Amino acid sequence: MKGRPIALKLVDDGAMYASEAKIHPRETDGPLQRLRIAAVFWLLGMFYAFPWFNWDGRQMVLFDLPARKFHVFGLVFWPQDFFYLSMLLMTAAFALFFFTALAGRLWCGYACPQTVWTEVFLWIERWIEGPRNRRIKLDAAPWSREKILRKATKQAIWIVFALWTGFTFVGFFTPIRALGGDVLHLQVSGWALFWIFFYALATYGNAGFLREQVCKYMCPYARFQGAMFDRDTLIIAYDEQRGEARGARSKSVPSVLDPARLRVRSTAAVSADAGTADVDQRSLGDCVDCTICVQVCPTGIDIRGGLQFECIACGACIDACNTVMDKVGYPQGLIRYSTLNAMQGNPGRVLRPRIVIYAVILSVLIASFAWAISHRVPLIVDVLRDRNALYRVTPEGDIENAYTLKIMNKDHVAHRYIVTIDAGLALAIGAGQDQIEAAAGQVVESPLTLRANPAAAQGMHPLRIEVRSVVQPAVRYSEQASFFGPSP
Ligand code: SF4
Ligand code: SF4
After folding, report:
1. Which residues of the chain have pLDDT under 50?
2. Strands 476-484 and 460-469
3. Ligand 1 pocket, residue 288 CB under 6 Å
4. Ligand 1 pocket: which of 319, 328, 335, 336 to mutate (most atoms <8 Å of CB)?
5. In angstroms, rounded to a whole number, what is the distance separating the alpha carbons of residues 445 and 438?
6. pLDDT score at 4
7. CA of 297 to the centre of ligand 2 (A)
8. Closest protein CA for atom 8 of ligand 1
9. Measured distance CA(39)–CA(50) in Å, rounded
10. CATH number for position 475
């Protein structure tokens, strides 16, 4: 199907901002819409439910900023665990590269918070104000008792939902049950109240009013995603070759993909059973110009004009057009996931080197992250040397070095640790210093003195200090240090 290229309009061709009429997206159904609904339930379900679950007696997900500890599924992350956060960010970045290069704006269409919350606000709007045509009529109608009632009810539910969202958001940073009690007793702290209202306002404003304006004018991803696209990236595309020229037609006119229709086109003869078909209808493509693909679009664009940067790849137009194609008895796929190369009949492949490289890097990052988390030791030990003296001579004539062990028990249970020394000379640990206790999440500083015979202690001796849990020997941490004696 070589022919005219489909239009690709990835940049805005007008002013920085254009005031637009309110969009009333039409309801649609289909596999992609059901996938979007599942994504909304899954993602928002996690957001609203996670803070209410406990794990090992603690809130399952709690970012305790004052204590500088992040509790996530029974693991406690400290500021020293920045490594895991950087790995997570790298994984997220490569996931974005991979999925965008593979299938365009999957993130925008199915997982972006702006998309999922807007979807819920739209559900509420449809529930209160009815389907698209009723909503348009209601907005255009003068204020009446019914209009005030419907609008006020919608606003009230939106506000409650937004406040609940703000409350849940703050519940990730402060124990949510205690926060709930404070709210019920009207004893919420000033900062908690500020963030509840701030996040509620952001949700209400972005998902209730700004909606597609956020995607069009505020989101930077919409502007640079073009750099990650190539001619083999899966995009949502209207098959212009098949669809044009568009127009209404008799139901008896077959699809252009139907061999019978091709015969009709080639002979310019009207099929006998096509009764009402006329010369114009024989030249039509498969688009019946019902504009339903435009009506369902949450950003209000017409995908038949080519790929546009406003398209968030939600797939609603695919589902809608497939429904129309079913109704008129044409094959589905007039709007479909495709690539620029495929739409122009050029050779190309979705699994290209770039995708494979991204996939390999992403797999390695995910595997490394999983390995690092599963082998994570909830213990950090710092060894600090006594800065006042390199060594000292004890009354017994031994050479003694002094250190401080800083032990951070990152576990959610208390530990008793054993201290052992691995060195090239015999070193004795000071009395009572070989065992240290630390409560869950406690940082303990403990003195450590090491003694050696003066005959063996001359010069510098590298050593390793190992701290090991008594009941869980796998919880161990070792640090390098040095033992100094007099110069030989
Ligand atoms: S839904 Fe399909 S048939 Fe209807 S206008 Fe859009 S592309 Fe054409
Ligand atoms: S054109 Fe509109 S409906 Fe179609 S995928 Fe893009 S945003 Fe969704």
Report:
1. 1-14, 266-277, 279
2. antiparallel
3. yes
4. 335
5. 10
6. 38
7. 5
8. 287
9. 16
10. 2.60.40.10
pLDDT of 80 reads 83
Residue with tokens 């993130």: 107
> Is the model's pTM score more than 0.90?
no
Pocket test for ligand 2, best of 28, 297, 324 (most atoms within 8 A of CB): 297
- Probe residue for ligand 2, chosen from 239, 301, 337 as the CB with the greatest number of ligand atoms within 8 Å: 301
Instruction: For ligand 2, say whether the CB of 419 is within 6 Å of any of its atoms.
Output: no
Q: Is the CB of 303 under 6 A from ligand 2?
A: yes
Cβ–Cβ contacts within 10 Å for residue 66, how many?
Answer: 7
Task: Please give the residue range of the domain that contains residue 411.
Answer: 379-484
> Does residue 200 form part of some domain?
no
Tell me whether residue 141 is in a domain: no
For ligand 2, is residue 312 a contact (CB within 6 Å)?
A: yes
Ligand 2 centroid to residue 132 C-alpha, Å: 17
**Is residue 426 domain-resident?**
yes
Domain membership of residue 388 (yes or no) is yes
Dihedral angle of Cα 436, 440, 442, 448, to the nearest 10 degrees: 10
Residue 77's CB is within 10 A of a number of other CB atoms, namely: 20
Q: Note the pLDDT of residue 20.
A: 66
Atom 6 in ligand 2: which residue has the minimum CA distance? 311
C-alpha of residue 294 to centroid of ligand 1, in Å:
8
Task: Please check whether residue 278 is in contact with residue 315, taking contact to mean a CB–CB distance below 8 angstroms.
Answer: no
pLDDT attached to residue 216: 86
Measured CA to CA, the distance from residue 36 to residue 109 in angstroms comes to 8
How many domains does the structure of the chain reveal?
1
370-381 burial, b if ≥16 CB within 10 A, otherwise e?
A: eeeeeeeebbbb
Q: Is the CB of 289 under 6 A from ligand 1?
A: yes
d(CA 112, CA 55): 27
144-203: pLDDT as tens digits = 999 999 999 999 999 999 999 999 999 999 999 999 999 999 999 999 999 999 999 999
Strands 58-59 and 379-385: unpaired
